[in-house]
Write a structure and sequence with these properties.
Elements: E1 2-8, E2 15-19, E3 23-28, H1 34-50, E4 56-58, H2 69-72, E5 81-89, E6 95-103, E7 111-119, E8 122-123, E9 130-131, E10 134-135, H3 136-139, H4 143-149, E11 151-154, E12 165-166, H5 183-190, H6 208-219, E13 224-229, E14 235-241, H7 256-270, E15 276-280, H8 288-303, E16 307-311, H9 315-326, E17 335-340, H10 372-380
Length: about 375
């Protein structure tokens, strides 16, 4: 599990250090830095997967396109370097730390060159082959690299209702895609896979198909879905219904919420212990009760051994997690909450990290931290 993340000189961050837990919630104001935390990990993953033997951080890739070096370097301090630091817990109780330094020699470049690497505090020689942004001789044994290569990311800009969805070979549906566009195909190939027993809805068969349907029904009562291959085409149809007495319908006719939450539920239930999943704004197009259900599911998935980092603007998602803590479904120290408030002019981002206790209560409530309802009620009353 990734246990801490440090970011220096990247976008709005001069220097920031964050504890990462089995479930980490990123909340805060628009433009406060939440997405930049997610993008740090996605950039590392993208660079390793798309350019395995490269010596650079790929800024313009198939999953994440951020522009040039000038677009990602912190403009307040005006540095030409950026650094990412990760600490990863080992299964034997120890830990591994990796620090990458990248240097932008040309601010127009679409990749930033690797400048230096520290592994467990020891500077590594970069004279030989570089694989996955580490010297080849140590890359294969790195637990940090293993976590980053297994990363899955669901962006806030998920695919909406579609007539058809792509069908690839089974290996091409290892994940749901960063826009959720591959979720139907993953279900098609892996519908009989067994879901972790701790996540299974009781009295429902433990397969991915049946458990996804049961979890979807918790979010949308009466919901059902059907995935069908199109004869003669490498494509699928995904159909929904919200009443067992009705026919299955095209996604366009059942609302955005179903197609937005479907890839999230599939990704969470299909994940294996040790996987790392990043989810942006899971609450999009969802009713408050559905948002709370999704927060609870995220907590249970994290407790099963899958690490989740969730960016959210929803107090209902947060409350779903808090209720899961109170019910004993996840330990309090397995949840980290970071709030990114507005930075002072010329100042650097300094997130506040409320602690959660066994009753689901938070030890502090910073200004702007899901307090808009209270502010509105105080004016109305």
């Amino acid at each position: 599990m990734l246990s801490s993340l440090g970011i220096d000189g990247f976008k709005c961050f001069d220097r920031v250090r964050l504890r990462l837990a089995p479930l980490t919630l990123l909340a805060g104001v628009n433009g406060g830095g939440k997405s930049s935390v997610i993008q740090t990990l996605v950039l590392l993953h993208q660079s390793m997967v798309c350019r395995e033997w490269s010596r650079g951080l790929l800024l313009e890739g198939p999953e994440l396109a951020l522009g040039t070096a000038a677009d990602v370097l912190n403009q307040v301090v005006g540095a030409r370097h950026l650094q990412f630091h990760l600490e990863t817990a080992r299964v034997d109780g120890g830990s591994e730390s990796v620090s990458w330094s990248f240097e932008a020699t040309d601010r127009r470049a679409l990749a930033i060159a690797l400048h230096a690497v520290l592994l467990d505090g020891v500077k590594q020689s970069l004279d030989g082959p570089i694989r996955w942004l580490l010297p080849e001789r140590v890359a294969g044994a790195s637990v940090t690299i293993d976590k980053l290569r297994r990363l899955a990311w669901l962006t806030a800009e998920r695919s909406g209702p579609r007539e058809v969805y792509p069908l690839r070979d089974a290996d091409g549906h290892a994940g749901v895609g960063h826009r959720g566009e591959l979720a139907a195909g993953l279900m098609y190939w892996r519908e009989t896979d067994e879901v972790s027993p701790v996540l299974c809805v009781p009295e429902v068969p433990p397969t991915l198909f049946h458990q996804t349907r049961a979890q979807m029904q918790r979010v949308f009562p009466g919901c059902d879905f059907r995935v069908s291959a199109i004869d003669g085409a490498s494509a699928l149809t995904l159909r929904f219904r919200t009443d067992p007495r009705a026919d299955f319908q095209r996604p366009q006719n059942v609302g955005f919420g179903l197609t937005q939450v479907f890839p999230i539920v599939v990704a969470l239930l299909a994940a294996r212990p040790g996987d790392l999943i990043l989810v942006e704004n899971p609450e999009v197009h969802l009713h408050p009760a559905a948002q709370q259900q999704l927060g609870g599911l995220a907590a249970r998935v994290a407790a099963s051994g899958v690490q989740l980092i969730v960016e959210t603007h929803s107090d209902h998602v947060l409350n779903g997690v808090r209720l899961a803590v109170k019910r004993g479904e996840i330990e309090p120290d397995a949840v980290a909450v970071h709030f990114f408030g507005a930075s002072p002019p010329g100042g650097s981002v300094a997130p506040v990290s409320p602690q959660i206790d066994r009753d689901g209560r938070l030890d502090q409530w910073p200004d702007g931290f899901f307090d808009q309802l209270d502010l509105a009620l105080s004016e109305l009353l």
